[in-house]
């Protein structure tokens, strides 16, 4: 998978509902110096999950093959494990190559 947002107007990606196991969401990403990526976790119906909305996500930037997503509530997503969720990604001057759920530093 690869998603490219070459300008600051940005792009949005929303997955179909999926289930996962693990306690952290890892991204392989790259951004320009001014670029950012933010991630939102949603219920299967598309409503943001409290504590995991875009406004709660810390900006992700740089060039990293294993960046763990964090929100103001932390990095732990294990409470959502094995429940259907959608992943919403907002990209500005950025590329997202892959995502995976795993332990915090695996």
Secondary-structure element order, N to C? EEEEE
By DSSP (H or I, 4+ residues per run), the number of helices equals 0
- The protein's oligomeric status is single chain
Percent of residues in helices: under 10%
Rg from Cα:
13 Å
Q: What's the shape? A: globular
Distance between the termini: 20 Å
Average of pLDDT: 94
Low-confidence spans: pLDDT under 50, at least 5 residues? none
CATH topology: Hypothetical Protein Tm1070, Chain: A
Number of domains: 1
What is the annotated CATH architecture? Answer: Sandwich
The strand count comes to 5
Binned strand content: over 45%
What would you call the structural class? Answer: mainly beta
- Give the C-level CATH assignment: Mainly Beta
Q: Major β-sheet, in short? A: 5 strands, antiparallel
Question: What does this entry show, briefly?
Answer:
With 106 residues, this protein is mainly β. The chain has strands at 3-5, 11-14, 24-43, 63-68, 85-102.
Give a description of the structure.
By secondary structure, the chain is mainly beta. It has a single domain (3-98), classed as Sandwich (Hypothetical Protein Tm1070, Chain: A), CATH 2.60.290. The chain contains no helices and five strands. Strands 1, 2, 3, 4 and 5 form a five-stranded antiparallel β-sheet that branches. The two termini are 20 Å apart.
Give me the secondary-structure topology.
Layout: E1 3-5, E2 11-14, E3 24-43, E4 63-68, E5 85-102
